């Protein structure tokens, strides 16, 4: 049987929203990149979402978007999918990316506490299940663990040349940028750490 890590598909996600929490506010866009255990991109998915009925932008988030009008306009570009339709498409893409469950989907985000929370809420609200199986790897925490446990030095990996140059605040570009970070971290992980997909030492 293949090692556990070899049976995993890492789904690196990034969301753009109009507020801090789902429900009162809406997801505007979701980008996702499927990676193999080495962190290499296998496939990608993206959608812009219609706003939730009765939801409204949070003033602080709207002020943020006012500083990035082109990025905000990109989230409102047609087609805008109803949330249920978008999430059904996302679930089908995950099933395809995982070989119809031959591989386990593991969500990766930066930060997972924000992006993964939005994805899981939309999964349960519009699908009644979680294709990402309630998993989440926080990319910045992973960087901390591989860089001595300090927060600010760990953030330097997000400034690697390989991850610069993408459009800021575009969900698919940010997901690809974070997938590049994930690939870099796995390649730089010490032998025997388990972070490269090999067996971890006890």
Write the layout of secondary structure elements.
Blueprint: E1 8-17, E2 27-35, E3 41-49, H1 59-66, H2 69-75, E4 80-81, H3 83-97, E5 104-109, H4 112-127, E6 137-138, H5 139-146, H6 151-155, H7 171-188
Helix pairs in contact: 3-4, 5-7
Under the CATH scheme, the architecture is 2-Layer Sandwich
Classify the secondary structure makeup into a structural class: alpha/beta
The tally of domains stands at 1
Largest sheet: 6 strands, mixed
What share of residues are in beta strands?
15-25%
Order of helices and strands: EEEHHEHEHEHHH
Using the coordinates above, name the CATH class. Answer: Alpha Beta
Strand line-up across the major sheet: 4-3-2-1-5-6
Characterization of this structure:
By secondary structure, this protein is an alpha/beta fold. It has one domain (about 5-190): Nucleotidyltransferase, domain 5 (2-Layer Sandwich). The protein is about 40% helix and about 20% strand. The protein has helices at about 60-65, 70-75, 85-95, 110-125, 140-145, 150-155, 170-190; strands at about 10-15, 25-35, 40-50, 80, 105-110, 135-140. A six-stranded mixed β-sheet has the order 4-3-2-1-5-6. The protein is globular.
